[in-house]
């Protein structure tokens, strides 16, 4: 890895309104092939907490930018979840299917440990509970471990539950009833989080349409629930007639200049991080009459789960906290109407105020 951050990544890092990150660590271990970026956005509320993403980025600059954006999102997420944690995120560069090894994860754990507790890591896209068990061997600031290792297990369980609570709040705000019964919900991405979300929605009486780039993920859901419909791809899903709620549950940037005009849904509420491709998309959604539940608010169930692990994990206690995502989402919609701004702007203002008060 280079010992400096170039171009737009550097610009993002030092722009106070978009970046303002406290620390960025570029990590390399030649023997294992590890190349990683650890970004700490804020520790105003406490140690930065956020997962580790393992992804085949097209460039090192792309990896740095993703880490910066994800870390900033974690600061806001943790603030609105009421956690005593700041925001941080790590990315490991490479294809996890070919590069991931025990030696690489151990080396990564040593880098996290070198930060002395300023950053607490967990799972994210491309990393799993068993990976965190390995990382924990060289780093005690690791969450999302297996129950056998004293951990909370799969954090996608409460992530999906929290998104469902956000959908209930959206339905209540828009239609006056928190139930999704009889509503059609389209889910783009039925992997770690999405397939749990399907369960909640079917139990609530919703009609579900899914799509995923991985055929095996679709087949797993269909095998358990043959009543679930399948769209050819995300483009077909967002254009589905009669869809009430669209749930992006894969990678970021799902809401952009191409997808927003094509949306048929009245609500967007999903688990993916950084759904808004660029500033201004939140206004485009509002102008079209689409209610957007800010991603970092509704997908905070997972971080609530792993944060609870640091205090001796209690699932009932963590689930009770995640249930409050419903009320938090409603309060954001109320604040947005009062301020005359989109919900994403209202959520940012509330999170920024909490961090400012802490400072």
From TrEMBL:
Record carries keyword NAD: yes
Domain Glutamate/phenylalanine/leucine/valine/L-tryptophan dehydrogenase C-terminal: 153-359
Pfam families per the UniProt record, alphabetical: ELFV_dehydrog, ELFV_dehydrog_N
GO biological process: one example: L-valine catabolic process
InterPro entries: Aminoacid_DH-like_N_sf, Glu/Leu/Phe/Val/Trp_DH, Glu/Leu/Phe/Val/Trp_DH_C, Glu/Leu/Phe/Val/Trp_DH_dimer, Glu/Leu/Phe/Val_DH_AS, Glu/Phe/Leu/Val/Trp_DH_bac/arc, NAD(P)-bd_dom_sf
SMART domains (UniProt xref): ELFV_dehydrog
Localization terms from the record: Cytoplasm
Residues holding NAD(+): 189-194
Keywords from the UniProt entry: Branched-chain amino acid catabolism, Cytoplasm, NAD, Nucleotide-binding, Oxidoreductase
Transferase found in the keyword field: no
Name listed for the protein in its UniProt record: Valine dehydrogenase
Organism: Streptomyces armeniacus
